[in-house]
Amino acid sequence: MSAPDIQLRDFHGGLHLPANKDISxxxxxxxxxxxxxxxxxxxxxxxxxxxxxVKPGDRVLKGQRIARAEGFVSVPSHASSSGTVVEIDxxxxxxxxxxxxxxxxxxxxxxxxxxxxxxxxxxxTSLDPSELRNRVREAGIVGLGGAGFPSxxxxxxxxxxxxxxxxxxxxxxxxxxxxxxxxxxxxxxxxLGGIAILLHALQAERCVIxxxxxxxxxxVSLQAELARRGEDRIQLIELPTRYxxxxxxxxxxxxxxxxxxxxxxxxxxxMICHNPATVAAIYRAIYRREPLISRIVTVTGEGVxxxxxxxxxxxxxxxxxxxxxxxxxxxxxxxxxGGPMMGFSLTTDAVPVIKTTNCLLATTPRxxxxxxxxxxxxxxxxxxxxxxxxxxxxxxxxxAHTRDFDKTQDYNLFDCIECGCCAYVCPSHIPLVQYYxxxxxxxxxxxxERQRSELARQRHQVRLERIERDKRERTERLRxxxxxxxxxxxxxxxxxxxxxxxxxxxxxxxxxxxxVAPRNISDLTPEQQRMIAEVDERRRAAARDRAGSKTGxx
Amino acid sequence: MEFRTYSSPHxxxxxxVSVVMRRVLYALGPGxxxxxxxxxxxxxxxxxxASLAAVAAEALMLRxxxxxxxxxxxxxxxxxxxxxxxxxxxxxxxxxxxxxGGLFAIVVAKQLYGGLGHNPFNPAMIGYVVVLISFPRExxxxxxxxxxxxxxxxxxxxxxxxxxxxLPPDVSLDALTRATPMDSAKIELGLGNTLSEIRTEPLFGxxxxxxxxxxxxxxxxxxxxxxxxxxxxxxxPVGMLAxxxxxxxxxxxxxxxxxxxxLFQLFSGATMLGAFFIATDPVSAxxxxxxxxxxxxxxxxxxxxIRTWGGYPEGIAFGxxxxxxxxxxxxxxxxxxxxxxxxxxx
Lengths: 554, 346
Description:
The complex is a heterodimer. Chain A is globular, with a radius of gyration of 31 Å. Chain A is of the alpha/beta class. Chain A has helices at 129-138, 151-154, 179-186, 188-202, 216-229, 248-256, 276-287, 318-324, 382-386, 393-401, 405-410, 421-425, 432-486, 495-515, 526-553, and strands at 30-31, 37-41, 51-52, 59-60, 65-68, 77-78, 83-92, 100-108, 165-170, 206-212, 234-239, 271-274, 294-300, 308-313, 334-337, 344-345, 359-363. In chain A, helix 1 packs across helix 4 (188-202) and helix 10 (393-401) crosses helix 13. The longest helix of chain A is centred in the C-terminal third of the chain and has 55 residues, at 432-486. Chain B folds into two domains: 16-177, no CATH class; 179-334, no CATH class. Chain B has helices at residues 17-39, 41-64, 69-73, 77-88, 95-107, 123-134, 155-164, 173-176, 181-190, 195-198, 212-228, 235-254, 262-266, 271-278, 289-309, 316-333. At the A-B interface, strand 15, strand 16, helix 9, helix 12 and helix 13 of A face helix 1 of B.
């Protein structure tokens, strides 16, 4: 498979939305003031939560690993500044569910003292891709565009897969958000440096940086950096501004005309997408050995006094960032993490900034009015006209609303990316996306239930079989015994006495066996012992291998 | 600080059902004026009575069903049903025909099924068919066109006729009414006349029925405006007009003396009103892009069959209702290929 042509095509649907990005891009990115306290959730990514490595009372330094990755789809967390761990407990976190999560609370000492840095490396090309991946994982890097998928996994195309094209998704198509725009304006070197690392790690030949044409400053800045480097593997593409161009699948379709299979990943068609902030974080992780402890956050909306972009430490309470932007305006009534189309509403600003916090949008009823009362669906099909996944939102709604979940799946519910285009154009003001989320959750719950009952059914089946078998064996034994009793014993003893004698001996043996601690490895046959030895040997070998790869990696 | 939470997307929706319905009403304007000019005040009274009955029935039913009357009435959908029904009725039909049609359309065909969005059939066409079957005589009261030189009723005379059934002493009902061009063509063809003879009668215009051709043209203009403003999509009208044109062309070419020309089919009866305003009722129509073409095409074909061989002069109402029945099935089999899914047969 060769690298696809880059030639702008089209995807179905989408919307032209008022961008509202200018309000936060007039000033350069500022560093947010050091908070007095950090709240670092153990899960800021898709996958398994990290496991804490510190306990209350421990002193931690900036950049120190305070939680380790647990499982494959997981990354560690780091202290974003120096101080003392005061608590590890449930705390409100930014999550659509509004539920809390275990967090590590650090009281900062204000010194912002770094952990002893590891030696910087001059040339990353001396490292092999697996080592680069390890370092990216150790740096705790996840997709910073909002999904929070551990980035190191996306640096591994997997056996037999080739990546022809790396796409840096700088579309940033959602209104209000401008953190990637600012990053591309101010730190094109980090982005291009990160791309070089990723191309090496993926063994890919080409990269496209895709930017919507409403970010001319970012485009100029990237172009200048490209010219300075004389990098010919990287191509900068201006995209027409349309929501949701930044959707990974829509962007790939737009750039190459190819569609990622519905149940597949971009890697299945030889492409990988990364967000520019992720790419810059990878650059810093590899060159400066700096874990992901801060990110650029857009703080915007009519609800804040002075909208801007802030470089914020992960774990900074949202309220402090709002403070840094001059606080709320009086009419504020809604606080959103993310953008106005796909972001979720926060109940409180006590939650911390996490790795996926790209935007904090505080709005007034004037800019985002309260939802109107929904009217019945008239099946006008406007939603289908704008659906970028080519679904029939009106039919999905109909079946989700009547709880006919099988039908919703016939209509490809799970291809819905929840972009919100349908709800935006709905003349009946139906909160369509909410219905789809509801249907998805119900289906997941049913699926879990089904799996559980299937397991229970299988267990029951096995149990019935076992009972049946036991019964068979018992009757068999009984028959044997009866036959033995009938036959005259060779020794001339009375068969009955012999049987009683045997039973007594068996009982005695049982008692003796119970007296010593019963162990399932005593009385093993030589065959069994040999098998155990083999298993042990395999385990030891595997442990040696792992240790070997770790030391080799250092 | 604590906040109330909302579900995404947070951006407020850009359009509104009542706006959509209002646009459709505006688009009916030119055709309505043209119909009034040719067929007199009866057009206005029919529209008025049917609308009043429809809106009153909607309000009453919403109240009985304990639904918010205000917001749901303001969506204008009942008003639109009434206007469409009124425009479909013969202008000299008495007031109670319009009222019964409007009541039936809203009470039975819409509200008993659950109100807006839940009616499987087009309410206006149900109302129309009910009065067509129940009052066959009144449903033939089509007046002479205003420019035919025949006697027409004034405003007061029309009102007197519509409400009380009184005609001015100098005129009889027979003198006032006549068969529609389509009806008359069918009768004359049945008598063994050829179309080239029939079409010389003053009942026929330049390309359609006299009067009807202009009314159709103005409904076409309104319909094009709806397309331009993206209030309706092109699939249903194009599907319907293309299939009606296509099938009539086949028969016309095979025997021009026995079959009406495609142009006549498009500009007679309620073709344009049906194609742009009635068949496009989204609630009861097919909702997929491909499905809408099939749905429209089905209406065109059924309309032609009824117009040519059926017992009724006009077939659009039956075409719409029959295709309403088929819409859910059409929808199921015409889902668009979702993003990232294989094309059929690939």
